[in-house]
Amino acid sequence: MSDKPQVSEVDDVPAPVKRSCGARFVAHYKKWWWVHLIVFVAVFLIIALPVVYVGYPHIAQSDVNKSTLNVTSMVVTNPTPESFHIDQVQVIGSHVAYHPQLYAFNASISLAGAASFASALIPAVKAINGATVTVNQELDVTSLSAFTDFTTAFLLNEEVGLNIYGKPHLKLGGLPEITVTYNKTATMKGLNKFKGFTLTDYSLVAPANSNGTNFKGTAIIPNASPATFSFGNVTLQLAANGTHIGESYLQDLVVKPGNNSVFMTSTVNETIVVDLMFGTDAPYPDGIVPIVITADAANASVYDGKVLSYYSHALAENTMNIKLNLSSLF
User: Which sequence ranges are marked TM in the entry (predicted)?
Assistant: First the structure.
């Protein structure tokens, strides 16, 4: 037996191949993709839900608040003691990049800062700049005192605020439908006390008509507002030098935008008028008589045989003054 050591050959064993980062990344996601999906969805919902349910309503309400409302036409007809017909055109002003849909809604109508006097159905509209909304319907007077305040303010003031308040639904694209508050005041020009009222082509009627009227003329009634009002039959009280001298009548009075020429008849106490010009110590010897025109709050406006208290009160709050050269008539 040989003492020579035994030598055996051993093949080299290759070292394990180290995987690249990309391979490990792919392997990780193949195994744990569902975990990452859950995390992604959770993060997305955490971000998206507040945007949709908090941010979106807040932004929508902010843009509604920034929008404007302009009334370009308002026609009030067929008045009764408890109702009236309105045909109103509104123009929306909006300068945002997106244009949501506003659905039809019931709105309270009021003089700005006052109680509501009626409720109107505002039609649906796409909220784009210049969009028009037409409200054409019969409205019940829900508060007579509030409507009286509105008609009085409209007649007496150069400008008046008309407020529209409601809670319409709003929808933008695929986002959820939400409720917003619509609270807009449109500033309109008022009747401004019929400033510039005058009487032309006036003359005596002799003999007097069977109804007692003995004076006629053309009343010029300015209206700088975009509104039209049907006042019905209007009776005005006439006074000179602190003395009542008669009444004037405007039949089926409709005051439209611009200058209105309306035929007017009057019952005048000729004896008093003559004395004011030619009597002893006459205050108006030149024949130019200042006339004070007022109205009776009880019955100044009558439509279809019924007194309209809201117009009667408004007319009674307005006093007009004109000067007439009456010397040539007597």
Answer: 33-56
Q: Do residues 276 and 289 lie in contact, with contact meaning Cβ atoms separated by under 8 Å?
A: yes
Domain residues for 261?
A: 193-329
Are 286 and 260 found together in one domain?
Answer: yes
pLDDT tens, position by position, 165-214: 999 999 988 889 999 999 999 999 999 999 999 999 999 999 999 999 99
> 190, 225, 189, 183: which is closest to 68 by C-alpha?
183
User: Is the CB of residue 134 less than 8 Å from the CB of residue 74?
Assistant: no
Distance of alpha carbon 321 from its chain centroid, rounded?
31
Question: What are the structure tokens assigned to 162, written together?
Answer: 């008309």
Checking if the pLDDT of 36 tops 70, the result is no
Number of domains in the chain: 2
Do 169 and 262 fall within a single domain? no
Strand partners, 188: 160
* CA atoms of 101 and 66, how far apart (whole Å): 16
Q: Which of 130, 162, 190 is the last residue of a domain?
A: 190
Entry pTM? 0.83
* Residue closest to 122 by CA, chosen among 85, 161, 153, 167: 167
CA angle 300, 305, 309 (to 5 degrees): 40
pLDDT-derived band at 95, boundaries 50, 70, 90: confident
DSSP 51: I
